[in-house]
Structures are given as structure tokens and as C-alpha cells.
Design goal:
This protein has 449 residues and is an all-alpha fold.
Length: 449
């Protein structure tokens, strides 16, 4: 292997941003196109069942997250074979354990949500957790060094194959199983491509005590953080599933799918770029690089805010143009979700700075605070005013949490007060304006539950 000098951080950061954003746009275009086709071949209840399955699987994943990926991307031993094999062993064992837990949860979930189909859907769909646990650590090593091109190609290839299978099965059966088997096929093909096309030594079962201690020590706070991360990412569906019908939850999931595109885009960039960027920036102590990262963050926030505002303004028209009358209520749902998302967007990258500096405890504290506020206000809002109240509660939670997030950012040396002030004011004005514009569609949804 040639010993070429490593490229400057900002060069790798911009190249990584181009790869990540480009692949994300293509991936979302594929998901969007498939969603339009599947919405015509299937029924709203199918999307409700998949929302519950996804909530269960993501809940298990987050509630048992040992922080392996973050450890490899940020730990000084992130390129050490013993450290990597210990991490892979930990992930593999976790995947099998999660599948067993998912099987045990199938009956309680089917009973709680009055959805008998979950009895069989959950154990089969949870095989994806086993496959995910076998992911080779060279994927994370490539991310550590911002070498993202081949990873993006693998994800797109697997996603395309899975979507084609979903559509074919949906056309042939009209069953929710088309979505389940398509998701499993995507996970299986992705794993096969990762093992066969990403260069580097193959993982094997290995447990080095020092590496294990380091992983579990760092991962202990990540585990607790991820438990609260589950409330933030999937808490809305876990709570609404208790109040809405499966059909209603399916319609909500369609609205969420369309409105969440900008935030998912931002999370993809932040998760893959910001931890290594903040880590290397801290090590280099280069003010010029810090300034470039700050400008990149402003550009990211501007782009995502523009997308959210656009969706909040055109949501009902977009749903009316793309979907049939069964999904009409997804229009005002898009307006409310996009408007509420403008508040947490402001502090999106701050917690990643804590992880990059090894401050997993501070990361946990912020996740616990934000998740507790969001969940409490979401439940209070849904009881007071139905779905609009719940989503208003999410936005209020982000505002209340801001001073604490700002202090974390200041301690990590990444606080940008001008950025935050501009986008907080813009988010409030734009969000309230979009809600006022579509108030006639939102008011009928206001009903205490």
C-alpha cells in the first residue's frame, strides 16, 4: 500500500459531505418513488404495522446500544485489530440476544396495540437485528477516516434491490409481508456487500479484556443515552399507537415520512462527518479549520431549514397531488411535523461535539434532558389537544432545552450564538406562519385524547 500523505481534514470533510448528501438524496428519491407505488398497491394499515415493527426494532437497537460505532470512530485505538475484533464480537452477540428479546415481545406488542399480525411479523422482521450485528468493523473504520464512497454505493445497491422486491411482492400479494421481506432482503444484501467489497482484514471472534473494558466504559453512557434517544426518535409512534387506529398510525407515518426528509438528511451528514471532524479539529487545534466547520454548519442549517419551511408551506398540496383520498390527513400532519422540527434543528450538531471529545456522560445528560422534556410535553399535548398539541409539545421541548444545549456547546468550544439566534427567530416565525396558513386543516384535528 502506498504511503501517501493524508488529505487535509477540510478536504475529506467536503468530499464526505458530497458523498453523503448525494447518496442520501438518491436513497430518499428511491424511498419516495417506492412509497408512492406501494401506497397504491397496499393499504394504510400496512404502513401502520410497519411503523410499529420499526418502532420495536429501533427500540431494541437503541435500548441496547453499546456505542461500538462511536467508539471506533472516536477512540485512539480505533484502528487496532484487537480492539476492532472485540467490538465486532460484542455487536454479534448483541444481535442474537436482541432477536430473542424481539420474539419474546411479539405477543405483548400484539396485545398492547391490538394488532394480531405483529405475532408473526416481529420475529421474522427482527432477523434484521442479527444481520446488523454481523456488520464488519471496517465499515466504521472507513467512516472514521471519512472514506465514504464505497459505503454509499453499497447502501444504494442494497436499497434498490430491496425496493424492487417489495414492489414485486406487493403487486403479487397485496400484503404487509411485502414490506417485511423487502426490508430483510435489503439488510442481507447490504451485509454481503460489506463483507465482500470493503477492503481490510476480516473480523473474527475475539475478546481482549482492555478493549472490552474501554468499549463497555464508553458504551455504558451511550447505552443510557440511546434509551432516551429511542424516546426522541420513535416515542411519537409508540405513544400515538396507543391512541390511534392502525390505519390512523399508517397515515401519520406517511406524513412523517415526507416531513422528516430534511432532518434525516441532516442527521446523515452529522452522524458520518461531525464526530471525526470535531475529533480531528480538537487534536489539530487549528482555528482556520474550526472556522470552516462553523461555516459548513451554517450552510447545513440553512439548507435544512429551507427544506422544512417549504414542506410546511406546501404539505397539503403535496399529499393531494401525490396520494389518493385515503391519505388526505397526511397533509396537515406534514405542516405540523415540519414546523415543529425547525426548533431542534438549531442545536443539531452540539451533542456530537461531546462524543467526539469522549464526553459520553455529558452526551447522556443532554439526551436524557431532551427526551424527558419531549416525551412529557408530547403526552401532555396529545391529552390536551390531540395530535396538534403533541407536535406543539415537541417544539416547546426544544426551546426549553436550548439553554442547556448552548452550555454544552460552549464547554466543547463549538457554540455559535449568532447562528442560534438567527435560526431560532427564523424557525419561530416560519413555523407559526405555516401553521396559521393551514389552520383550517389543523383545527379539525384538535381534540383531547
Amino acid at each position: 500500500m502506498s504511503q501517501t500523505a493524508p488529505q487535509p481534514l477540510i478536504t475529506r470533510l467536503l468530499r464526505g459531505a458530497a458523498f453523503t448528501s448525494g447518496s442520501f438524496v438518491i436513497a430518499q428519491a428511491l424511498r419516495f418513488g417506492s412509497n408512492l407505488i406501494l401506497a397504491r398497491l397496499l393499504f394504510p394499515e400496512a404502513f401502520g404495522l410497519m411503523a410499529l415493527l420499526t418502532m420495536i426494532l429501533m427500540g431494541l437497537t437503541l435500548l441496547s446500544d453499546t456505542g461500538v460505532q462511536q467508539s471506533i470512530m472516536g477512540h485512539p485505538r480505533g484502528d487496532d485489530p484487537d480492539f476492532l475484533n472485540t467490538a465486532w464480537t460484542l455487536n454479534a452477540l448483541r444481535g442474537v440476544l436482541l432477536w430473542l428479546v424481539a420474539c419474546a415481545l411479539a405477543w405483548p406488542a400484539a396485545t398492547l396495540y391490538d394488532a394480531p399480525d405483529l405475532l408473526t411479523i416481529v420475529p421474522v422482521g427482527a432477523v434484521a437485528l442479527v444481520l446488523s450485528g454481523l456488520t464488519p468493523t471496517r465499515i466504521y473504520t472507513a467512516q472514521r477516516h471519512l472514506m465514504l464512497g464505497r459505503i454509499m454505493a453499497i447502501e444504494l445497491a442494497a436499497q434498490t434491490a430491496g425496493i424492487l422486491l417489495m414492489i414485486a411482492l406487493a403487486y403479487a400479494t397485496g400484503s404487509v409481508w411485502a414490506l417485511v421481506w423487502g426490508a430483510l432482503a435489503t439488510a442481507a444484501l447490504k451485509l454481503a456487500l460489506e463483507w465482500t467489497t470493503i477492503p481490510g482484514p476480516a473480523n473474527r471472534l475475539r475478546w481482549e479484556r482492555a478493549a472490552g473494558r474501554a468499549l463497555l466504559s464508553f458504551g455504558g453512557w451511550i447505552l443510557l443515552s440511546s434509551a432516551f434517544g429511542f424516546l426522541m426518535a420513535q416515542g411519537d409512534r409508540a405513544i400515538l399507537g396507543l391512541y390511534l387506529s392502525i390505519e390512523g398510525l399508517g397515515i401519520y407515518n406517511i406524513g412523517w415520512f415526507l416531513a422528516s426528509f430534511p432532518i434525516l438528511f441532516a442527521n446523515a451528514l452529522v452522524g458520518r462527518l461531525l464526530i471525526p471532524a470535531y475529533r480531528e479539529s480538537a487534536e489539530a487545534a487549528n482555528p482556520a479549520t474550526d472556522a470552516r466547520i462553523k461555516r459548513l454548519r451554517i450552510l447545513l442549517t440553512s439548507l435544512v431549514a429551507a427544506m422544512l419551511i417549504t414542506l410546511a408551506l406546501i404539505g397539503p398540496w403535496l399529499v393531494g397531488f401525490l396520494y389518493d383520498d385515503r391519505y388526505t390527513l397526511a397533509g396537515p400532519i406534514i405542516v405540523m411535523i415540519a414546523s415543529a422540527s425547525l426548533m431542534p434543528l438549531v442545536t443539531l450538531t452540539y451533542d456530537q461535539a461531546a462524543l467526539a471529545r469522549g464526553e459520553s456522560r455529558r452526551f447522556f445528560q443532554m439526551m436524557a434532558l431532551r427526551a424527558s422534556l419531549q416525551t412529557a410535553l408530547f403526552i401532555f399535548g396529545v391529552m390536551l389537544a390531540g395530535l396538534p398539541g403533541a407536535l406543539a409539545g415537541q417544539a416547546l421541548a426544544a426551546l426549553i432545552a436550548y439553554p442547556f444545549m448552548a452550555r454544552l456547546a460552549r464547554d466543547m468550544g463549538v457554540w455559535d450564538r449568532r447562528h442560534d439566534a438567527i435560526f431560532l427567530i427564523l424557525g419561530l416565525i416560519a413555523g407559526l406562519g405555516a401553521v396559521a396558513l393551514h389552520l383550517d386543516l389543523i383545527l379539525p384535528l384538535i381534540a383531547p385524547i
